[in-house]
Amino acid sequence: METLANLSHGFSAALSLDALLFCFIGVSVGTFVGVLPGIGALAAIAMLLPLTYYLDPMVGLIMLAGIFYGAQYGSSTAAILLNIPGTATAAVTCLDGYPMARDGRAGVALFTTSITSFFGGMFAICLMMFFTPMLANLALSFNSAEYFSAMFLGLVAASTFSVGSPLKGLAMVVLGLALAIPGTDINSGLMRFTFGRYEMAEGFQLVAIAMGLFGISEILSTLVRREQPQVLARDITFRSLLPTRDDWRRIPWPSLRGAGIGSIIGALPGSGPSMATFIAYAVERRVAKDPSRFGKGAVEGVAAPESANNAAVQAAFIPTLSLGVPGDAVMAILLGALMIHGIIPGPQFIQEQSTLFWGLVASFWIGNIMLLVLNVPLIGLWVRLLTVPYRVLYPTMLFLICVGVYSVRSNPFDVGVALAFGILGFFMNMLRYPTAPVLLGFILGPLIEEHFKRALLVSRGDLAIFIERPISAGLLALALGLLLLSLWQALRAWRRRNAVTTSMET
Amino acid sequence: MKGRHINWPETAAALTVLAFGVFMAAKGMDYPLGSLRRMGAGFMPVALGTLLALFGVGLLFEALRAPEEVFEIRLRPLIAIGLSILFFAFTVRHIGMIPATLGMIVLAAFADPPFRAMPALLSAAVIAIAGYLLFVPGLGVSLDPFWW
Q1: Least Cα separation, residue B65 to chain A (angstroms)
Q2: What are the boundaries of each domain within chain A?
Q3: Interface pTM, i.e. ipTM
Q4: Which of A317, A434, B22, B74 is the 20 to 30 A CA-CA neighbour of A26?
């Protein structure tokens, strides 16, 4: 019952005019960037991050979070109509959504994704309301050794789970940690790696790095590739949205399974919504009576992954807000936004900032309802947005990036830093080096360094402290397991490729 | 045996990681290292730099095994966007936000050919004015619109 009382307290905070307005802005921007294939949720969140300097921490967080889950709603639209995922998570939705659109059932597919997204989100919010405080209570007994191990696990998971070479992911996490070093050392007051520039005394600015890696690099990549996709269906009537009776029968179970899978995977560190959608789709194919329908426009193939990605997005808040350990780059930016206001999430966060936490939870309910309204009756509007040419979009994005970075501390140096990271991010995209782990490392860097030092100060320099405490040892063992697993995978892939090349040579 | 083809972009990236790690570790040596019990300012840079250099070596092995690829990089967008951002950074303090934005957007329009002056100027004006209204009166950011 305490939960209900807290929630109603949260609603009174989230129903204030400011909070409602920025919740609406957040989910609308989220849907907008989700629909447009050229811009991802990360880029949008990075671009609006400077705004949070001028907002109340809760309102700012509500807006940024709204972009994140709003994008999950919008991303399926491009997947269904263009066969291009609006964000990475919608790649799975293409598999059955696009065939549905080719059969003239685009409306049904769009309706299904909105409804199941809503269901998945709601399901995970309920879990979040109970598990976040529980996990936080458990974590009250944590000290620096456990924190270090939890963050270490988070970093290892984030880099080894990412698509492609795990070695690249790991190297990029370390690069992120290294980027956090320039600036004044908190313990000694020594200036490290500033190269005599006073702008570097505070180190790199989070906003500049995030905008560069995710905003500028995305503009560059899109302009260099130059894709102009064809829209499949321009006019979506309300009638065409309605699923048949057969569809209605097929939707509930897949979306429930998707929500369950998404919640579990989303709450694990390092495994974001993309992985949840892939697994949900795979499970659905396995349990289906007739798996051959998949890939040819099966409603289940749209319902399960869409439910899973929204559940995963909401569940990702559980470790972030209870332990202060973000699972992916988006959560890391949200954490960074809180740290800008001097709030460091951890086990005490829910108690000390109870209005903020419950207000945020309440805003998820409100935001998801807004999204349902935005995405079902107004879907035609978003579909028309797909025809907005990129030559109108990218100058606007460029403006938001430059003014946003500059305004943080009225310093043109930061704009230059953002450009440098933009070019770096562009080449990383070309060479398939993941950019998200860099940001995760950068944000967690100072925290992990501090906990590492503090734990060793307590143990008088004895590294055994990390394995003497059972929870810490367990977390480290998990991280080690992940490292070995990815090493084994890399070796296997390597050997297979070698076998192929030798067989070709003989 | 056929001659081996080397994937140059991948190799160059791995070498960059390696070089960055070595540089970090070497520069970190300038600061006091301290001990495990009481770490100095140089401990983390040296540790992370070494780790990064090791990953760089690993990536080098991976890159040498990677199949050859052709990279198509068109320089025009890179140069145009780069110049437009630099223009903004160098001028915003001296000529104010609105002229700096105008210049930035017009330069950025060169990134996506064909360049047409009128639409570029028009969108620059719209973005500069709408952006000014959003940031300065709307959000209370203190930015000078012009140089006076």
Answers
A1: 8
A2: 2-499
A3: 0.92
A4: A434
